[in-house]
Amino acid sequence: MSVFLTLLMKIIPLYFSIILGVFSTAFLNCNKETIAKILLFILAPIIVFNATISVKLDASVVFLPIFFFVLSTTIAFTSLKYFNKIYSDNTANLLAFSTATGNTGNIGIPLAILFLEPNIVDVFIFTVLASLLYQNSVGYYITAKGNFTAKQSLLKVAKLPVLHAFILGVVLNILGFKIPEMFMDYTNYLKGAYAILGMMLLGMGMEKIKTNNSFDLKFINYTLFIKFIIWPALIILFIFFDNNFIHFLNKDYYLLMFIFSIVPLAGNTVTVATLLDVKPQKMSIAVFISTIVSLFYIPLMIFLFGMMKF
Fold first, then answer.
1. Span 2-14, average pLDDT
2. Which of 36, 219, 235, 302 is deepest in the core (most CB within 10 A)?
3. CA 104 to CA 111: how far, in whole Å?
4. Using CB atoms within 10 A of its CB, is residue 187 exposed (0-12), middle (13-18) or buried (19+)?
5. CB burial of residue 185 (10 Å; 0-12, 13-18, 19+)
6. Mean pLDDT, rounded, of the chain
7. Which has the closest alpha carbon to 68: 128, 121, 125?
């Protein structure tokens, strides 16, 4: 019960940010497209660069974001092939994109602080780069391809500054550069701004829910099944295989990977859907419902994972 209450206290502020987003659009006529651009083209690259240049790199640490990036990409293209048989419009693209990632930042990082050792929390934050890179590269491409040609989509991906920030951060990390101490507090402020604006955008995306028939039960069921059933099942399978045969990762990293897999749908999917005008209201509904479900789902899954023999 104490774990559940602690988690609840971590998630409640996120709902307040969603309410602020609804208020800012409904009463202040704020432009959600502008907020989406700030998130995707300014805040995300800075956060990615800071995390990449700060973490201590070794084989297991580097493996984690690569693993999750490859897993997300595999889930995305596999599900896209399936959903193209069900939907004739870009709903298939949006489903494939959104179910292959999760809210590893706004919800995943507080969970990591709760359940992981401080040094493993730093590794988790670095692993979150996998989500940001997927969302802003492969995920962006898949979603954009619902409205644009392959060439146009690839050009959009190549222009995303988050990819350039990641590459620059890795290079400077290898060369031994560090973020000056005078900027450390500022980077923490940026992380807070990213979290708040990201959740506000989720609320802003609910502006036309009633008029656009955004509540799609089939769409929601697909997202919840893949995110809350398929994802943790795949991670448990990998952990079982590594624990019994490969022995590459330790038990702390097992819990890190499991937490990464059980977070709800990512709020950033609303950002991309908004920028590309691919049913952002429908995506907002699905993200909001998955966040509510996660309130009860996450403590249960953490409890069940603790009972497993790893």
1. 71
2. 36
3. 9
4. middle
5. exposed
6. 85
7. 128
Residue corresponding to tokens 């290079």: 171
CB atoms inside a 10 Å sphere around CB 67: 17
d(CA 116, CA 28): 40
Q: What is the pTM of this model?
A: 0.82
Query: Which is more confident, 136 or 56?
Result: 56
CA distance 291 to 23: 19
Q: Please say if the pLDDT value at position 154 is more than 70.
A: no
Residue type for 301, please? M
Q: Residue 1: how many CB atoms within 10 A of its CB?
A: 6
What Rg value do the Cα atoms of the chain yield, rounded?
A: 19
What residue type is 67 in one-letter code?
F
CA dist., res. 159 & res. 136, Å (int)? 10
* Nearest CA-CA partner of 161 in 297, 242, 22, 43: 43
Cα–Cα distance between 146 and 92 in angstroms, integer? Answer: 8
Domains and CATH numbers, the chain: 2-306 (1.20.1530)
One-letter identity of residue 188: N
